[in-house]
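Task: sequence design from structure.
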């Protein structure tokens, strides 16, 4: 945000003034703007650094999601509105010669770069797992898709111990896709034994089909209850939450409230 403001703020008013004033103010005014922005940057750094230092996750390893960027921008804006008044006073009597102005600018630029780096480091330590680089849609064009593209088949329903889904074993972080277009009926960080899970109701050629996705990674859900999803849309990441012992997707299919075996259902319908 800073760069465009610097150039536009000084000129329009300056041209209306008498020449003697114009020269002095033309020099001072941009510096004041730079100083304000620099001070804001320094405040952002001061806030961002402790947050970074207290985080437990791996530093700097993960890419940034759009949600994180939006969140960080929001934080910067709040800080800026509180910072302008004091920094304006301070900046008004500093840096009056061209040399000082150049030095000041360089200092402010360095501070701004440091603030940016700190903000980036802070956002990467967020608990929310990133889905940057994850395929956002499963390949295929059919009304039904495999929710996980690569997996090992685990336990299915009807084992006699109340297991009502098919365990699709895949590493933690493997993308999960909506098996069909529909409406998200539930999406939460904890739904009983499902753990982090999503449920979707779909009308597939006139038949209402409910699909359920359990044991996802905390914070990985990409949709909320009430959202409309498309078949093959990324909805979350395979995890090990809830009643789960090992990373896998617990995938359920229900028609009219009755549990189907997802394995033959997908084999017959997915494409
Ligand atoms: Zn299961």
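Answer:
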């Amino acid at each position: 945000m800073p760069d465009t403001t610097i150039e536009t703020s000084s000129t329009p008013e300056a041209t209306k003034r008498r020449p003697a004033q114009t020269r002095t103010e033309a020099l001072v005014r941009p510096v004041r703007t730079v100083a304000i922005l620099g001070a804001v940057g320094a405040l952002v750094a001061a806030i961002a650094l402790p947050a970074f230092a207290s985080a437990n996750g791996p530093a700097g390893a993960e890419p940034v999601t759009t949600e994180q960027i939006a969140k960080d921008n929001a934080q910067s804006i709040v800080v800026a509105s509180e910072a302008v008044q004091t920094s304006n006073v301070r900046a008004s009597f500093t840096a009056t010669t061209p040399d000082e102005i150049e030095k000041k600018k360089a200092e402010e630029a360095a501070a701004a770069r440091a603030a940016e780096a700190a903000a980036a480091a802070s956002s990467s330590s967020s608990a929310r797992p990133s889905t940057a680089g994850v395929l956002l849609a499963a390949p295929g064009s059919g009304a039904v898709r495999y929710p996980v593209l690569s997996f090992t088949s685990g336990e299915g329903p009807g084992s006699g111990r109340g297991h009502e889904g098919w365990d699709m074993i895949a590493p933690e972080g493997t993308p999960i896709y909506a098996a069909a277009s529909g409406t998200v009926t539930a999406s939460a960080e904890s739904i009983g034994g499902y753990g982090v899970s999503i449920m979707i109701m779909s009308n597939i050629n006139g038949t209402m089909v409910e699909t359920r996705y359990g044991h996802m990674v905390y914070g990985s859900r990409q949709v909320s209850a009430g959202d409309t999803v498309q078949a093959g849309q990324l909805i979350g990441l395979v995890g090990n939450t809830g009643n789960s012992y090992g990373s896998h997707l617990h995938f359920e299919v229900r028609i009219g409230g009755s549990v189907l075996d997802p394995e033959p259902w997908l084999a017959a319908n997915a494409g």
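The chain has two domains: 2-124, 152-269.
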